[in-house]
Amino acid sequence: MFLARVTGSIVSTQKVASMKGHKLLVVEPYRLDTDSRERLLTTGRTFIAVDTLGAGEGDLVLVCQGSSARLTPETKTLPIDAVVTGIVDSVHVEKKSVYCRKEEG
To answer: Where would you find this protein in the cell (predicted)?
Structure first.
């Protein structure tokens, strides 16, 4: 599982039948700044993840990848490799807040 920022969405009118009706998001993984350990930084990579929660652009989310992505009731029959499993409210590291959703908006 990893933290990621939703940076966009995908529209695909041609896809396998089991994927119809599922929202696809572009997510960019984030990591803890190893120098200060007080903020999150992008990894510079992107993934496509199925959204089962209603996340939106700009949200920080939890993403499960690999075979674990198919372990939710909503995704168990889908041909996917990544799924949004949570929308993050806050992140604390060593008793310091490195992210707070309320402060973002």
So the answer is: Bacterial microcompartment
